[in-house]
Specification:
InterPro entries: DUF7800, Metallo-depent_PP-like, PhoD-like_MPP, PhoD-like_sf. This is PhoD-like phosphatase metallophosphatase domain-containing protein. It comes from Thermomonospora cellulosilytica. With about 525 residues, the protein is of the alpha+beta class. It folds into two domains: about 90 residues, Immunoglobulin-like; about 425 residues, Purple Acid Phosphatase, chain A, domain 2, CATH 3.60.21. About 30% of the residues lie in helices and about 25% in strands. It has 15 helices and 25 strands. The strands form six sheets. Strands 14-15-18-19-21-20-22 form a seven-stranded mixed β-sheet, with no helix packed on it. It has a six-stranded mixed β-sheet with strand order 13-12-11-23-24-25. A hairpin with a 4-residue loop joins strand 16 and strand 17. The termini are far apart. About 50% of the residues are buried.
């Protein structure tokens, strides 16, 4: 009998359609609610995305998964969780988007504390209010910080001393890591089967500080094991995460997906690997960013990792094509604009100025010796957020202030950046320039990977008012102009494992942060955004 290896994962859902993703142990036909898809094969692994059409807006439909006609989900005898359902928007209820980042799993020893995603799943299973969708904004898996179970798998597969040590090496090892992250906890597995999920990667999905700088890329490509690693990372991300982010129409327009569907049961590892290597070497050859409208709210998920422009002469958070795409997506005539970037756009101001200074120093503002020192500091201190790409920061500031002023259609009621990465949570408000539309930065991190003590206290100090002037002075000495925006932290920082929820009802928007306490969640704070 054909078995379900991973999933089902409920992915892109709109008023009429839904996508269910699965991995199986052999080629087969996968059927959900009368819709069917044949699996495709990559490196001996079998996947399918079943596209269901004809759903009613505002409906709630339980579903089963059949492999070659046999029901494999729900699993026989599993009655701890309610039936998996597809809930379509359009029923007039408020929009609720849960989000978070940075989740280490599994963690059998509890080293990383309670899992906010698991606690959230338990609450929903107990009848809690369901979100419209779940946004996982980076570090869904940790390819360079491994737990005991995957270390044992790697040891059995290629020995303890093979390179890279303590990290994933290729596609096969990524498949095992995804299985651990999304199947080990039954509550999380059920959650992913019944709540539409949208994702974007961050560095640990590939490797810590991924694409920090041109020097970093040169160093990594000099390693004999890196080619297999980056190909495996991006190929697996395309299959396990990216394809499900897309609508059926967007997937149909994807040339690689079309070639794979035409290949039948042939293993198409060569096609996927070629695509993945090209995506790394030529970031403008593919787009990982995407946009999705939830009624009158636009969500833009921004790739702030693979889309970077890093050459000896230029550096930008987004290459020219990606920046033009983001500029086109930033429009008014909507009630709310949400811009999700794994890396916070607005950091505590002392950190922002420090990264401004470091970018200028690494670029030669203080000579060649200063540039070499600046690069060492950049990589050691992870100074590679939006603030470390000054030109990109200013370009996005122009976009959002133009929207907020009503220069690109009617101004929305709120604009908010949603981010993770930094392993603490906070709310920042733009205070200047003054606009009729409030602009906020909402950070929720981690879901499960708390910051170590000394780093925690360093960030507490960086968040305090009155510390920014010292780093602004350094930036000024490196001839960095003042930022085009002014902002301040109004809530946080909090260092718990947390999940946040954006709730939108008409022109009103608010955010709520909840901390994990065992398998429960405790509200930490809430704030209005509009």
């Amino acid at each position: 009998m054909t078995e379900l290896v991973l999933g089902p994962l409920l992915r892109h859902v709109d008023e009429r359609t839904a996508t269910v993703w699965v991995e199986t142990d052999r080629p087969c036909e996968v059927a959900v609610l009368g819709a069917a898809a044949r699996t495709f094969t990559v490196h001996g692994h079998h996947y399918a995305l079943v596209e269901i059409d004809g759903l009613e807006p505002g409906s709630q439909t339980p579903y089963e998964v059949r492999l070659d006609g046999e029901v494999v989900w729900p699993e026989p005898g599993e009655d701890r969780f309610p039936p998996s359902v597809i809930r379509t928007p359009g029923g007039g209820e408020p929009l609720r988007l849960a989000f978070g980042s940075c989740r280490r799993s599994p963690d059998p020893e509890g080293v990383h504390g309670p899992d906010a995603l698991s606690a959230y799943a338990h609450r929903l299973a107990g009848g809690g209010e369901r979100p419209t969708a779940l946004l996982m904004i980076g570090d869904q898996v940790y390819a360079d910080e491994l737990g005991d179970e995957i270390r044992a798998f790697i040891h059995r597969r290629r020995g303890a001393d093979s390179e890279p040590q303590g990290e994933l090496a290729d596609f096969e090892e990524y498949t095992y890591l995804y299985r651990l992250a999304w199947r080990t906890d039954p509550a999380v597995r059920w959650l992913l089967s019944t709540v539409p999920t949208y994702t974007i990667f961050d560095d640990h999905d590939v490797r810590d500080d991924w694409n920090t700088s041109y020097a970093w890329r040169e160093e990594m490509w000099s390693q004999p094991w890196w080619r297999r690693r980056i190909i495996g990372g991006l190929a697996s991300y395309w299959i396990y995460q990216h394809l499900g982010n897309l609508s059926p129409a967007e997937r149909a327009a994807d040339p690689l997906y079309a070639r794979i569907r035409d290949a039948g049961d042939r293993d198409v590892a060569d096609l996927v690997d070629e695509f993945a290597e090209q995506a790394d070497r030529r970031p403008d050859s593919t787009r990982w960013s995407y946009a999705h409208d939830f009624g009158a709210t636009r969500l833009i998920m921004v790739d702030s990792r693979c889309a970077r422009l890093l050459t000896p002469d230029r550096r930008a958070m987004l290459d020219d094509a990606e920046l033009a795409w983001l500029d086109e997506q930033c429009r008014g005539d909507r009630d709310h604009l949400l811009i999700a970037s794994s890396l916070p756009y607005l950091l505590p101001r002392s950190i922002h100025h420090a990264e401004n200074w470091n970018e200028a120093m690494s670029g030669g503002a203080w000579g060649r010796a200063g540039a070499r020192l600046g690069e060492k500091i950049r990589q050691a201190a992870d100074l590679e957020h939006w603030a470390a790409f000054e030109g990109s920061f200013r370009a996005v500031a122009e976009d959002v202030t133009a929207v907020a002023r009503g220069e690109r259609g009617a101004a929305p009621a709120s604009i908010a950046f949603l981010s993770g990465d930094v392993h603490y949570s906070y709310l920042a408000r733009v205070t200047a320039p003054d606009t009729t539309t409030p602009i906020s930065q909402v950070v929720c991190s981690p879901l499960r990977n708390p910051l170590a003590g000394r780093f925690r206290w360093a960030n507490v100090a960086a968040c305090r008012r009155g510390t920014a002037w010292m780093f602004r002075g350094l930036a000024a000495l490196a001839r960095v102009p003042r930022p085009p925006l002014r902002w301040r932290l109004t809530r946080g920082p909090w260092f718990d494992n947390m999940i946040a929820t954006i709730e939108i009802d008409g022109r009103r928007a608010r955010v709520r942060w909840e901390a994990a306490d065992g398998t429960s969640l405790v509200e930490r704070s809430a704030a209005t955004l509009s």
